Amino acid sequence: MTSFGARLHEAIRRRGPLCVGIDPHPGLLADWGLNDDVAGLERFCGTVVEALGGEVAIVKPQSAFFERHGSSGIAVLERLLADLRSAGVLVLMDAKRGDIGSTVQAYADAYVDPSSPLCADAVTASPYLGFGSLRPLIDTALAHGNGVFVLARTSNPEGAEVQRARGSDGRTVAETMLDRVREVNSDAQPLGSVGCVVGATIAADGADGVNQENLRVNGPVLAPGIGAQGARVSDLRAVFGPVVHSVLPAVSREILRNGPTVAALAASAFALNQQVKEMLIEK
């Protein structure tokens, strides 16, 4: 069994580090000339798979935009997962789940156990019931060769009130989460399967509660915030410093706004992927 970290490492080598978010919100469907219904959702997903299947290493569907359509929307998400896998793309389910005990185990069974039709290569998770509450999710993912991305210092401004808070040891909550991720990945090669989410919008000088050295978690760093939230690809080296070669820049609107044609989507993904390859991939 090949670990998620190893699969991701190889996929980045072949296709580059760009992660494209799949966020079919009502406004985007309308911009594409699609109805905000299951039929529109299906057409959207088919176009995205055709455009991105040969261009990027990993994509990130936001489950909420499928859940809002009920069981029929979940069925579309299941088909999207299968189609992306067939296209050779890794899938990071953006579900941000977090709970305790049997409930977090149920989330694990849904998102990282291959017996589930919703199983992805990795899932995002919220550790703010305590990092230890995620152990069933992390353990299940690792047992099946899948991964988890733990929220640490996110790109939304509201996150600061929790993530920049300091404990009795003087460390911020975000840094404590990064410490825990590092512990899980301690012996992994070539890349750990537990990643972290750190916004590309944070200050490079540590003022946002994350020290660059603490970002050495021996795992991938998902970096949302490029484009609509104000960060630029050219900012990544300054923000992430010594771990920039482990960064997955996450972009959604900057790519998806170029739809609905397959050619325009593929061209925009290719262009941005080339830009991040030049910036991030170690020569």
Automatic annotation (TrEMBL):
> Looking at its record, which EC class is this enzyme?
lyase
Active site positions: K96
The enzyme's E.C. designation: 4.1.1.23
Name one process (GO BP) from the record. 'de novo' pyrimidine nucleobase biosynthetic process
Pfam families listed in its UniProt record: OMPdecase
The pathway this protein participates in, as annotated, is: Pyrimidine metabolism; UMP biosynthesis via de novo pathway; UMP from orotate: step 2/2
UniProt GO molecular function? orotidine-5'-phosphate decarboxylase activity
- List the catalysed reactions: orotidine 5'-phosphate + H(+) = UMP + CO2
PROSITE patterns, from UniProt? Answer: OMPDECASE
The answer to keyword Ligase applying to this record is no
Domain of life of the source: Bacteria
Q: Does the keyword Lyase apply?
A: yes
Residue ranges annotated for the Orotidine 5'-phosphate decarboxylase domain, each copy included? 17-268
UniProt keywords, alphabetically: Decarboxylase, Lyase, Pyrimidine biosynthesis
- Please name the InterPro entries in this protein's record: Aldolase_TIM, OMPdecase_AS, OMPdecase_type-2, OMPdeCOase_dom, RibuloseP-bd_barrel
Q: Which family does it belong to?
A: Belongs to the OMP decarboxylase family. Type 2 subfamily.
Q: What protein name applies here?
A: Orotidine 5'-phosphate decarboxylase
What is the organism of origin for this protein?
Answer: Phytoactinopolyspora halotolerans
Q: Which gene encodes it?
A: pyrF
